[in-house]
Automatic annotation (TrEMBL):
Family: Belongs to the enoyl-CoA hydratase/isomerase family.
One matching Pfam family: ECH_1
Family matches, as Gene3D superfamilies: 2-enoyl-CoA Hydratase, Chain A, domain 1, Lyase 2-enoyl-coa Hydratase, Chain A, domain 2
Matches recorded under InterPro entries: ClpP/crotonase-like_dom_sf, Enoyl-CoA_hydra/iso, Enoyl-CoA_hydra_C
Naturally occurring in which organism (per UniProt): Phyllobacterium myrsinacearum
Protein name in the entry: Enoyl-CoA hydratase
Length: 254
């Protein structure tokens, strides 16, 4: 099986790089499972205090793998192996930092939102464009984006599929830090080194308390069920066909 996660251990922190550049680091099932395994391993390592996620060759992650979603039905969605990977990522106790350049869309944006801090380069592009495929985010993106932005701006991005720049992401409060293009990883490393000198148990309790305050399991379950139902619709099939053909979709509400 191809290795999609490059790991680099530094003094007190680790860097995990999504490495599928031919697909702009789109998240397929193998990549997500490898990422979850790597995160779990470093979460258990007492020498690692924090973990950075970044993407290879100028992009964070351009979304989910459309080829994997194209033929999935609602039943397939219920048994999707990616769910276990997303759950494992959510269980990481140590602080996670996303260093974002280029595309950070769809599932890639949901992954960044699962991180505790986001360092966004000005050239980054953030968005949840699933609506253009007749779908919605299915890994918590609706709930987390609403918590970050409030109703109006969350609705704006989710209903239109509009994207925003890394500069806007920082101004809107999605990103905790902003940098010029090409400097997000260096800034994330500075931040990770600072956190590595902190009190690890206190940091973990802060993370747990903040995430518990934001956690609404009923809302997350509704989001996931809605995503699964949409997998079997004609509009989803049309949305993906239009995406592949580089044309405007003709949605019919069925």
């Amino acid at each position: 099986m191809e290795n999609y996660i490059q790991t680099d251990v530094k003094d007190g922190y680790a860097i995990l790089t999504l490495t599928r550049p031919e697909a702009r680091n789109a998240l397929n099932t193998s990549m997500l499972r490898q990422l979850a395994d790597s995160l779990a391993r470093f979460d258990r390592d007492p020498e690692i205090r924090t973990i950075i996620l970044t993407g290879a060759e100028g992009n964070f992650a351009s979304g989910a793998d459309i080829g994997e979603i194209a033929d999935k039905t609602s039943v397939d969605g219920v048994h999707d192996l990616r769910l276990h990977a997303w759950d494992a990522i959510a269980r990481v106790r140590k602080p996670l930092i996303a260093a974002v350049e280029g595309y950070c869309l769809g599932g890639g944006f949901e992954l960044a939102q699962r991180c505790d801090l986001i360092v966004a380069a000005g050239n980054a592009t953030f968005g949840q464009p699933e609506i253009r495929l007749g779908l919605i985010p299915g890994a918590g993106g609706i709930q987390r984006l609403t918590a970050l932005l409030g109703k109006s701006r969350a609705m704006r991005l989710l209903l239109t599929g509009e994207t925003i720049s890394g500069t806007d992401a920082f101004d809107w409060g999605i990103a905790s830090h902003g940098t010029p293009a090409g400097e997000s990883l260096a800034a994330a490393e500075d931040l990770a080194a600072k956190l590595a000198r902190g009190a690890p148990l206190a940091q973990q309790f802060v993370k747990q308390a903040v995430l518990t305050a934001l956690d609404d399991q009923n809302a997350l379950a509704l989001e996931r069920r809605s995503f699964e139902l949409l997998l079997s619709t004609d509009d989803k099939a049309e949305g993906i066909a239009a995406f592949r053909a580089k044309r405007q979709p003709e949605f019919r509400g069925r």
